[in-house]
Each structure stands twice: as structure tokens, then as C-alpha cells.
Amino acid sequence: MRSHREHCQRLGWFSSPLCSRLGRASRFIVLLVMVLFGNRSPISTARAEPLISSEVIALALPSREEAQPTRAGAEFCRRLPNECSVSGSEPSSLALIPSVSETLVSINAHVNVAIRPRTDQEHWGIEDRWDYPDDGFGDCEDYQLLKRKLLASAGLPRRAMRMAVVIDEDGAGHAVLMVRTNRGELVLDNKTDAVLPWSETAYTSVKREGETQGKWVSLGGRTSPSVTANPLVLARVVESRLNQN
To answer: Is 161 strand, coil or helix?
Structure first.
């Protein structure tokens, strides 16, 4: 992944004093600018981006009793509390108008291309860690955290976007970003560029972030995985990306 200076040069900002002062946050800013304004050259892809069908309607995903947050997710919130804050003044769902649909699809697809899969064991030397993929590498939850940050920067309410834990089609723990809309719950996933209603995924929904900061709620899944970082999931993501190129 290019440094912020290389990104600035590609965007014509290299001589700007602002560019020389950009630090860690610059990757988020540059990626957001490219997604929203169509400059895709640093993370270009030949495949077409799947659109959210205008006919999509999904049932609301019922929340049940309170659940324990994932250990790595709770640690992420302790390190970066502002990234987990939820304002009760924000809407809890959003209207799936064309501009919102386009933003969801674009950011989902571009983050999936921009970040390269790497397990937490390889990346950090521990089994499970939630963090932003600042160096261009991450696993499932890191992709989704970045998507949420970019979507919030684009004006979408954080309260409508919840990190969620699921069991995937192979029985492994996995993390996705659930977006609550007036047409039901949509899932943003690093395993596919399609933004799908939760009912059209092959996943068993286990739990997700709740209405109150630091609280999680059960979604009825039978078991709760101890980790969301699974090497087999990352291997399939790598294989899928190679087949698309």
C-alpha cells in the first residue's frame, strides 16, 4: 500500500504543505476521497462493483438478550474509545436511497481491494486483535472497522453501523459490518464485494454491538466463537482475490 506522500503525489497534492503534515489519518482521508470522488487509480480493479438491488427488502434481525463482547473487540474499544462511541442523537437506521447505496457499495469494494489479508498471528503475534489496517494488512474485523470509519466520515450515522460476529459457512468465527436500513439489515464483508441482506448470506448471526457503548446483544446464534480471526477464512480471501485478478 502506498505511503501518504505517494497518495498525495498521485492526487496532485504533493507540493501542498498540508500533504507534508499528513500522518496516520491520511490513509483514511485519501481512501475516502478516492471512493467518493471517483479517483480509483491507486486501488483500481477491473471487476464491476455489484449494486444493491432497488428491490431488496430484508426482515429486521431481532436482537435478544445482552451478550458478552468479543475480548479483542473490547480491548479495541479500551484503546480507542472514540472509535466505539455511539450517540443517541443519531438515527439507528438509514434510508437506502441511491446515494447511500452507492456509498456502501463503493467503500465496501474499495476497502476489500486496498487491504491485503494477513492473520493476527502473522501481523501482531497474537491470536486475535482488532485494529485499523494502517499498514495495508489486516483480517476480517480490520476490514470492517475501516469501512465503518470511512462510512462515518462520508456522513453515515455510526449508530446504524454495527460490528457483528457470525459463524461462516465452514463453521469458523468471522466478523462483518451490519448496516441497519429502512429495508432491513445489510452486511458488508471482506469475503465478497456484494452488499447483501443478512438473510441472503450463508452465515449464522451470533451477536453484535448494541445500542449502548460497550454493550453487545445476542442475535440467536447457537455458539459464540472465541476469536473472529481464522486462518482458513484468510486463505479463502486470498484465493478469491487471486482468481479475480
So the answer is: strand
Closest CA to 138 of 150, 163, 120, 121: 120
With a CB cutoff of 8 Å and minimum separation 6, the contacts of 37 are none
Structural contact between residues 76 and 130, judged by C-beta atoms closer than 8 angstroms: yes
Task: Give the integer Cα–Cα distance in Å for 225 and 99.
Answer: 35
Question: How are strands ordered across the β-sheet holding 216-218?
Answer: 66-67, 216-218, 204-209, 161-167, 173-181, 184-189, 192-197
| Rounded distance between C-alpha atoms, residue 73 and residue 40, angstroms | 31
Reported as a single tens digit per residue, the pLDDT across 133-168 is 999 999 999 999 999 999 999 999 999 999 999 999
Domains of the chain: 1-44 (no CATH), 56-244 (3.10.620)
Using an 8 Å Cβ cutoff, are 207 and 223 in contact? no
CA–CA gap between residue 174 and residue 159 (Å, rounded): 21
